[in-house]
Amino acid sequence: MNTQPLQLGAVLYPGFEMLDYFGPLELFSVVGSSLVNINTVAQESGPVAAAIGSEGALGPKVIADYGFDDAPAFDILLVPGGSGTLTELENPAMLDFLRAQSETAQWVSSVCTGSALLAKAGLLDGLRATSNKQVFAIATMQSDKVEWVEAARWVEDGKYFTSSGVSAGMDMSLAMIEKLFGSEAAEMAASYTEYTWHRDADSDPFADELNVLAKQLGMV
Amino acid sequence: MNTQPLQLGAVLYPGFEMLDYFGPLELFSVVGSSLVNINTVAQESGPVAAAIGSEGALGPKVIADYGFDDAPAFDILLVPGGSGTLTELENPAMLDFLRAQSETAQWVSSVCTGSALLAKAGLLDGLRATSNKQVFAIATMQSDKVEWVEAARWVEDGKYFTSSGVSAGMDMSLAMIEKLFGSEAAEMAASYTEYTWHRDADSDPFADELNVLAKQLGMV
What's the structural domain count of chain A? Predict the structure, then answer.
């Protein structure tokens, strides 16, 4: 039996969405550090500012423990979305890091527009995946080789978990915890955080808002 | 008409709970920086590590913009819970800061065991309030002058909003956003984050878990 905790690498970049990142980390933190260890990583180690809204403003800063260059190979990768995704889509260092880590990681997950980065890196080719509903086009524009699922709270395909927008990352994380550590661990994490877990990956209360914000922003 | 954004001061301390903090900040961030501006504050400015689980382990670090000494008077105060609450209950600097800020703030809010700190500071005397359900006793032990509400997702009394554990801070924050900026702003924030808002403050799916964890930890 493997007694080493799984190493979770949670990717930061300027303009990451706060709840995309800390919703999943909260739930994985509750599982206990004997099972999973949380690491923060960005292109450079040090402070990284979160997104405030959709228009590029920045807010609270989180410290990246590792830079891309000195990060170990993680067992689980978490890629959040946020207004900064648009910049990172054009950042070869980010796409290279996602490709390199995904090659060896057991599980690769994204929240919100994080799946746009995975798609741009070519990692979702031939797979089913989802993304934020209000700006779904940001993801779909990155690759036509992905089977984009418009109505899903999250999608699991192979070792990839992709979730819908922001809060959906928490439901996806509980599904991952259930898969990795059992249903009791997932139920405990939900109780501990007093979170009403939406267990049905295919039930998506926000699917009818497809590209509502993307249209307002003139993206589609 | 007041065109200045409200200044929200979000309090950090070692062992704060990640989702207690970033759930509310996510929702307030979506409202837009023309209406509300997010500030991070701790006893000393600089990095502050979040809680990992209930037993005092520490994880990701967030940067406090302000120390208690150089923080401006905030319009909205947010006090998270977390395993570090137990230490802060014995920290006069924290209790003094909460008293001083609460005197001038328009709104004072807490998530989870954050209400234990407000109660210890004497700020909830004569008021109705709630707290984390699994460790409810941490709050109730601080003051018998508070009308502790066992079954509530959140409680509003005067300028104080106190929520139940962790995830409940998001429902409370949407209620605060509705009160401060209107129901359209709250509904937009919920849609943007693809969050299913639990609107009924009195409906508490976790009330039957009262002190379950506190008993396991030998607190009651």
Answer: 1
